[in-house]
Amino acid sequence: MDQPLIEIKNVTKCFGSNCVLDGVTLSIYRGQLTSIIGQSGTGKSVLLKHIIGLLTPDSGQVLFQGQPLAAMKKGEHKVVKRKFSYVFQDTALFDSLTVFENIALPLMENTAYDETEISNRVQDKLHQLDLFDIENKYSSQLSGGMKKRVALARALVTDPEIVLFDEPTTGLDPIRKTAVHSMISDYQKRFGFTGIIVSHEIPDVFFISQRVAMLHEGRIRFEGTPEEIQQTADPVVRNYIRGLESPHDELTGVASQSLGQKRLIREMFRLQRHNRPFSIVLLSVENLEDVDRIAGHVAGQTALKNFAHFVKNNIYLTDICFRYDMNKIMVVLPDTDVDQAGMFCDKLSRNLDTDAIFDLSEQPRGLCFAVSAGIAQAKGNGQIESMLSDVEKQQNIFWECRI
User: Fold this and answer.
1) What is the pTM of this model?
2) Residue 1 pLDDT class (50, 70, 90 cuts)
3) Which of 125, 174, 284, 329 has the greatest number of beta carbons closer than 10 A?
4) CB burial class (10 A; 0-12, 13-18, 19+) of residue 383?
């Protein structure tokens, strides 16, 4: 693997007798989203402030591109800090400034853009976060959730190289929470920034992160991919994740990813033990990013929620559908072969209409919502992993609507 962009090496930090960080070692890689999870009070926010240089360690080092921050000259450190943007947990909005002025502030302080360019960039971020008709309001006039989104717009308005998110979705409802996650993921793919997210939102952050680190008792207990952390045998990590997971996906109302995976294992056991066939259907919204771009991330996540609700209402009691990924719903069909699974997809296609997905009176023209379907039948001597790989490869558009 390439050299880490940011390295935390044996960092300790104590406040009086309370040792919050006790030898933390962690690597952050360029162009990836890394989520830092862990119980409240374990020092996740303190760790973020060390990364950006707001706090200095009692011992250990924080390195940027191999250079210790503590050894940098004032000018060098200033250049590095300009590469960062930070979304504070308490938003840190200025009460004396309007929403527009809060978002524009980083551009005014750190760029040479003229007033027109600054205004265009601020208006763009207001639209992308569905912050309409509030640019002249003050933070005291906003709800807690609205403040979060304004803070996020301010952090992204400079198109930073590295963005640190400290609990960016706290206080938001499920649709806006997933809209923020979708926006973070969308922006990261579009601009390639390196993101570090402190969050309790499990499994939601697994959908958007390339790496996950768990902070426990002042140290990194786990560091790896979302797939690896969900398969770990470490009882501390497993108990923490299970304690936060719900049997249902918060946004869509379908079964959670972990519950769906357990059902897959159970159906594979029935096939191997009793020769009972089953098939899976993977339904993917192919252009959710385009919907987000044209209509906003809230509209995109609302459409995904409505689609998942439609699928759930069109399966039998013995079937299960669950959130497989950020924009994917998987359906497990017991006692079904591949031809019968194809008939299920045909039924969905016939019954699905645009009104089930969008409120047409509120959507702009040029909007397209396309869904692809992949079908795979389990093999008695096969593995779940190979079946999932097969279904990903076989996807074809089976339904599309345009406004």
Assistant:
1) 0.84
2) low
3) 329
4) exposed
